[in-house]
Amino acid sequence: MDYAALNFQPILLTLKLALTTVGVLLVVGIPIAWWLAHTGSRIRPIVEAVVALPLVLPPTVLGFYLLILLGPHGWLGQPFSALTGDPLSFSFAGLVIASTLYSLPFVVQPLHTTFEAIGKSPLEAAWTLGASKWDAFWTVATPLALRGYITAIVLGFAHTLGEFGVVLMVGGSIPGKTKVVSIEIYDHVETLEYTQAHILSGGLLIFSFLVLLTVYTLNRRLPVHVS
Amino acid sequence: MSRLIARFKLDFPNFQLDASLEVPVEGFTVLFGPSGCGKTTLLRCLSGLERCPDGFLQIGDTVWQDESRGIFLPVPKRPVGYVFQEARLFNHLSVDGNLNYALKRSSGKNASSRFDQVVNILDLGPLLKNRAHQLSGGEKQRVAVARALLTEPGLLLMDEPLAALDAKRKQEILPYFQRVQEELGIPVFYVTHSISEVLQLVDTLVLMEQGRVTQTGPLDEVFSHVESMPGSSALPIGGILETQVIRQDEDYHLTVLQFKEQTLYVPRQNVKQGSRLRVNIHAGDVALAVSPVQHQTSVLNVLPAVIKKVVQNEEDPYMAKVLLDVGAPLWATITRKSLANLKLKEGQKVFAHIKAIRMVHDLD
Fold it and tell me: Which of A49, A191, B17, B100 could, after both became Cys, cross-link B10 (CB 3.0–4.6 A)?
């Protein structure tokens, strides 16, 4: 096999995208999940439905709207290019935004479930012991929700690795900028380069399997703290 | 001595709290009433965990909540310790970790000596390294009390801390409550639907019914002011007698108590001669006789009494409630037929035959 022909750029780009996306997802997803678990608001089901949309929509639909939103005349694209001089669509930043939306339910849902299972009781106890809400979140809710966090991080990461449709619509396949592994595989197959397609596909398969295996093993070993 | 003044109104779908309370913040105050009367909600209002839209709370000269002036002291800022019914220990921490969580957030000095003192009072030394979720129910509550004490509270709120425990465990924990009272002197507000468990500790009693505070005051004062024996459920007690231990009767395995000039016998108690003991008599355990037929009955305890009041209501068409003065107020429930047969009326002298005296170990 001609290993030299194997291009590592898409692999590195994919990892970079997945890690960045997970970071953004945590910053965005934790407050949403926390709010969903503790609010009594009537708009809660609406927010839940919106967060879950990427689970059921064809990636092309999501990608299509994102393309419009991120495009040079879109709500997000226009201010972005006015500020930076670069377009948001067909850029790495655009890919991160798209991946974040696409993988949002995979992060929000496990966190939401865990926060709900923990409930308000231990938080109330922490408040009466002099902890502020912020303090209680980090010192009580977070350690109790450890399993939920790990599940969320891994699912968010793995799901971003595997995305294809949204990335193709929003990012195109610009080498080094937006060409991730899944698209590289598609290109190889199109040009009948089955060897390269095999190596990348097999690599992604094994990697994803190992990641999930690690989570489920960890989940069994981590004690469930919620009583 | 500071006083607590509180007014809280809260509407829930099937329950309404409308309580005003004024009590000294001192000693052991018991909020007592049937399940669902709002005592836990009132306690949560005092702690700030529940916020009433137009609530008011003042302790001493400090206003903690006055919604009309936009004042609300947030929970973590209140110098209050809270012990929940289910202990609510942090299961991701050890006992030591749980205690230090409170200690680290308290403002007081001498943290380490205070830690040692509290651990000592509640006998937690051997448990410090255990994980919180490995403890028994009774141990959990002891840790919860210690944790609340380490915040150096000016007031300790306890919400039915014994409710989840069986009678034997209750027995094990009660002495610790007494020690906390004696050694730290922190005022306690204690919520319960079973007054016998804290009978020996009560200084002030707050009676609650259907979201309202109906009576407040020292134990005996509350009993003599109660207009009628409030709902069969709120006060399943006929009266509480303050007695003194005279001696132990080893032959019959009894403890002999003195109440006013009278002698009472109870099953042998593990108490010291000369010590004070409160006993609890259920209204249904009191029978009335017009003559002292002591030598003709198996009932040991007979007290001369004067009938103060007779109450009959439609809820129990065959029963009458009789308020007696035996040196302390005591309610008796008898049938209306007996009332008629004996021609009982207010002011009459009778004899109260007490069939059973409830002791602390008869926790209900």
Answer: B17
| Tally of residues, chain A | 227
The residues near B164 (Cβ < 8 Å, ≥ 6 apart) are B85, B86, B137
Q: Where are the domains of chain A?
A: 3-221
Domain A3-221 class?
mainly alpha
B106 vs A contacts (CB less than 8 Å): 130
Asked whether the predicted pLDDT for residue B37 surpasses 90, the reply is: no
Name every residue in A having a CB less than 8 A away from some CB of B.
121-122, 124-132, 135, 139-140, 143-144, 146, 225-227
Cβ-defined contact of A143 to B133 (cutoff 8 Å): no
The structure's pTM equals 0.82
Query: Degrees (nearest 5) of the Cα angle A116, A120, A121?
Result: 120
> What is the rounded CA–CA span in Å between residue B80 and residue B88?
16
Beta strands in B210-270 (DSSP E): 212-218, 239-249, 254-259, 262-267
Q: Where are the alpha helices (DSSP H) in B38-109?
A: 39-47, 95-104
With CB atoms and an 8 Å threshold, state whether A126 touches B147.
no
pLDDT reading at A49 higher than 80? yes
Share of chain B above pLDDT 90, in %: 46
Interchain CB contact of B106 with A (< 8 Å) = yes
